[in-house]
Amino acid sequence: MNKDKRTEISEIGEFGLIDRIHQGVKIKHASTVKGIGDDAAVIGEGKRLMVVTTDMLLEGVHFDLAYTPLKHLGFKAVAVNISDIAAMNAVPRQITVSVALSNRFPVEAVDELYEGINLAADHYQVDLVGGDTTASRSGLIISVTAVGEVEKEKISFRSGAKINDIICATGDLGAALMGLQVLEREKQVFLSNPEMQPDLEKYTYITGRQLRPDARMDIVHELRDLEIVPTSMMDISDGLASELFHISKASGVGVMIYEDKLPIDKQTYDTAVEFDLDPITCVLNGGEDYELLFTIRQEDFKKLEKHPDIHFIGHVTKAEEGLFLVTKSGTAVPLQAQGWKHF
Amino acid sequence: MNKDKRTEISEIGEFGLIDRIHQGVKIKHASTVKGIGDDAAVIGEGKRLMVVTTDMLLEGVHFDLAYTPLKHLGFKAVAVNISDIAAMNAVPRQITVSVALSNRFPVEAVDELYEGINLAADHYQVDLVGGDTTASRSGLIISVTAVGEVEKEKISFRSGAKINDIICATGDLGAALMGLQVLEREKQVFLSNPEMQPDLEKYTYITGRQLRPDARMDIVHELRDLEIVPTSMMDISDGLASELFHISKASGVGVMIYEDKLPIDKQTYDTAVEFDLDPITCVLNGGEDYELLFTIRQEDFKKLEKHPDIHFIGHVTKAEEGLFLVTKSGTAVPLQAQGWKHF
After folding, report:
1. What is the DSSP letter of B320?
2. For Mg(2+) 1, which residues are the binding ones (chains A, B) (predicted)?
3. Alpha-carbon gap, residue B141 to A57, rounded angstroms
């Protein structure tokens, strides 16, 4: 390392860092169909390809054990990886789980964590095939790798969106972010007055979305049944706006989305207002929803039109038209990507 | 979690914990050929199968940045996973790398770490296809997953050793442990008197073995060229004795090894003596050598007899005969497994 130069990671940001890492990579094998730069890597040579993805959750960064039950955490650690498999339009098959934990955790805590992991393995029909258990000097760390499979002609990359495609989002957005705000507030209330019982009853939907998200494998299976292959797809983990920038960049297109089409749950909306936050900003920039964002050809619209949980939020435009949100009043405002802020 | 009961992890140990986790696992897919319990999982359905393994390295547990250059660390994080692929007699193809780092690391440090990762990717001919970069509140964490492939009839599990097979070990053992002892001593010397320069020149081989181990893919390729499929194989990461217990348990056999056949480098030997340690104990229980331990049929012996880097350390016996070391004086003493002591 050149001791004379010190560039802070915050100067180049997460995506700058990923680009920098990506630049040093040389692909050697024909079996590497897709490397860094999508929700999962795609490997193999035949008609059926494998997808591989990995994600690490760290205590104090991605979760707070003050309000996160270990069973939910185990489930979530699996679900966030399954969500990346779903985002490739693939079906998950196996997972490995590495856990680092300090001796403040008794065996019973490990049991509880794995109860959630096994529950998720059943729910998503995947086999837990390996991993690693090690000591940690600091907090709990869970690193999951998921392996899935997909027929070559059914993969959805981020890069396939075409002009006039319809932009779809599943479920509702912003709930996990508002759930986190509530959990953090109640934690502070508890810390300043341990006799106060946290009042979470009105917030069960949004706190559930934060603590125990569900990957949308149901949508992947429904799309298969309807014989729809999304022209592009990714999961919404960093926030809708940020993901739209990824699709736009990877596909070389612009996007136009409509405020009145954005899906938001009433509890999310009400809680945002309670917290003096703009609900639409929560929908655009809230992370961890683990819903799917995808684009379909116009001719596939009829097949999905009446789907209760798929929302048609806009359409794909030419790259030079940029990324815009049309507000309820009809004004087109440029989208801003906030994305990930851990550093 | 039942609040009434608290079992310390140290009470059941690493292997007890792994057994406990293993018990909760149900395998659902025919494509899961081998789950938990070998160096890597084996998945797939055709003639060519995939192997997948994952390992996490944590600062303060697995490495100390006081004496570990980041470039070596990056290389090692990959090499230890490749070693698990080699242990299945498979060839590695792809890796994913997740890194968590705090803001005390500048971008230049990340560059240095990835320089080592990319060097290893070239050395082992694997593609870096994905991963994750995240913030850490504490130390540096690196989690690597490696994917490899192998023809179905060439896989070596831990479970295939047969009575009268010859037990082989590659390279030399105990060096990484003694390298660690030297590095730790020099660190203490430096901490108590920062003007003292560490004197590592006599120890370059053993410190190199600790800081930058090399997975034995060369041996895997040579065995293929010689058309030898080891009846069982694993890598030596926790210490020879511990690994022999794994082979013994998985294969349902006993082992007899000979002290005078155990491979030890002169520098390892001399350093053990300097530290008042029994060199043979270092060979039996030193971890992180990342050599291969395997068994071959008697008829394959001729093909390997003159190999300069494969040592014939003993033979496989009946399960009821147990695990024994025959000392230089001809006494058979029961082997003791120490294994992993991170908790």
Report:
1. G
2. 54-55, 132
3. 11
Question: What does the pLDDT read at residue B340?
Answer: 43
DSSP A257-311: EEGGG----HHHHHHHHHTT--HHHHHHH-----EEEEEE-GGGHHHHTT-TTEE
More confident residue, B196 or A145: A145
Report d(CA B130, CA B96) in Å as an integer. 5
Sheet holding B141-151, edge to edge: B32-34, B41-43, B48-58, B141-151, B91-101, B127-135
Domains located in chain A, CATH noted: 26-154 (3.30.1330.10), 158-334 (3.90.650.10)
Q: Is B237 known as a binding-site position?
A: yes
DSSP assigned state of A46: S
ipTM of the complex: 0.92
Three-state DSSP state, B33: strand
pLDDT confidence of A137, banded at 50, 70, 90?
Answer: confident
Decide the pairing of beta strands B310-318 and B253-258.
antiparallel
Partner-chain contact A136 B17, CB within 8 Å: no
Question: pLDDT tens across B258-314, in order?
Answer: 999 999 999 999 999 999 999 999 999 999 999 999 999 999 999 999 999 999 999
Q: pLDDT at residue B105 above 80? A: yes
CB A52 within 8 Å of CB A184: no
Locate tokens 């390892």: which residue? Answer: B268
Cβ atoms of A239 and A149 closer than 8 Å? no
Query: Which residue, chain included where needed, has tokens 């690193």?
Result: A143
Phi/psi for A218 (5° steps) reads: -60, -40
Question: Is the CB of B17 less than 8 angstroms away from the CB of A342?
Answer: no
Q: How far apart are CA B167 and CA A166, in angstroms?
A: 63
> What is the rounded average pLDDT for all residues in chain B?
94
Which residues does chain B have within 8 Å of residue A114's beta carbon, measured at their own beta carbons?
A: 21, 24
Q: In a mutagenesis test of the B interface, which of A31, A99, A125, A145 is the best target, namely the one with the most B β-carbons within 10 Å?
A: A145
| Residues facing B49 on adjacent strands | B150
Determine the residue type at A86. A
| A146, B69 Cβ separation under 8 angstroms | no
